[in-house]
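Same chain as my last thread, 205 residues:
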Amino acid sequence: VDASSPAAQGPLDAPLTLVIFAEFQDPFIARVQPTLQLLQDQYGADLRMVFRHRPLDFHADSRNAGRAVQEALDQGGPTWFWAMHDKLLQSQNALDVESLVTYARELGLDEQRLRQALVDGRHDAVIAADEAEAARVGASGSPTFFVNGVIISGAQPIEKFKAIIDEQLKAADAKKAAGVKPDRVYVELSKENKAKNPAPKADDK
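reply #2:
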């Protein structure tokens, strides 16, 4: 799973990378946020978190919400990306254009730039690339998570995340002990885990 992102939280050479494929109208990604926060608190600098867009067509506002977080990233970097991300997940019942503009104002973003970004397509290529990656790796729903390439589907309990994370932390330690550089650990483990668990075909869903 491609984990390159200008909006990631956590160090590039973290032994654990959690890639999140999700969208902002989906109630399940909102439900799992406390779990993700607990994981960040517990694993600290060992955990890198990457958000990738997976808008669902039956959620009419999900694509504009994705454009809004990308515009927040453009205007203020990762800090504003995650601030807008959190704001949208706390406000899932109000993601229409005027609500998005209101949240931008509250965060201190340029409102007019945000309005323009919702209609001119400037962020659509990023969202489309994430959708293509989701299809490539078998992230057929929202949310879908990958821990070093190991898939977790849906809003699972924290025990499910921790079991896989702890297993991957041991695997990362073994890689580093074998001489793999920290910034290459994710690449190697995700390749190995993908080979063990290939993405499901469309007719397997």
